[in-house]
Design brief:
2 helices, 4-stranded mixed sheet, binds copper (II) ion, Immunoglobulin-like, 9 strands, about 20% helix, 5-stranded mixed sheet
Length: about 130
């Protein structure tokens, strides 16, 4: 005996193996949204004469997309000095986006580089956390 029951046992083992593979595949499947993608933070910057109002003062390290809206009567821009990242010049009523990647935590000084606007108050600090 033994030899006649082998094929059956083998088939059963194969079925179990395939079943386990399916379970493993299902367990390792993670929907795209919950995968650990690099975090992107969105910050709105409203500009007036003469100040820039950020929707948040603190962001986690990573990519930040600044949505800049000029609510003033003069053209303005938004610049992160330390990283030499400056938005396009934004006309009154206009908007622009600026994508900046902050790799290190710290304090990042931002300014409007137009004329003497920084001296009139268009500056501040954005805190980047780990
Ligand atoms: Cu300005």
């Amino acid at each position: 005996m033994g030899t006649s029951s082998r094929p059956g046992r083998f088939r059963r083992a194969a079925v179990v193996a395939v079943g386990l593979c399916l379970v493993a595949a299902a367990a390792s499947y993670v929907p795209a949204q919950s995968r650990a993608a690099p975090a992107v933070t969105r910050v709105t910057v409203k500009m007036f004469e003469y100040r820039s109002a950020l929707s948040v003062r603190k962001v986690p390290a990573g990519t930040v997309i600044f949505s800049i809206v000029n609510k003033g009567q003069l053209a303005h821009d938004f610049s992160i000095e330390k990283l030499q990242k400056t938005s396009a010049l934004v006309q009154p009523g206009g908007h622009a986006t600026l994508k900046v990647t902050f790799r290190k935590a710290g304090s990042y000084y931002y300014v409007c580089t137009v004329g003497a606007h920084v001296q009139y108050g268009m500056h501040g600090n954005l805190t980047v956390t780990k």
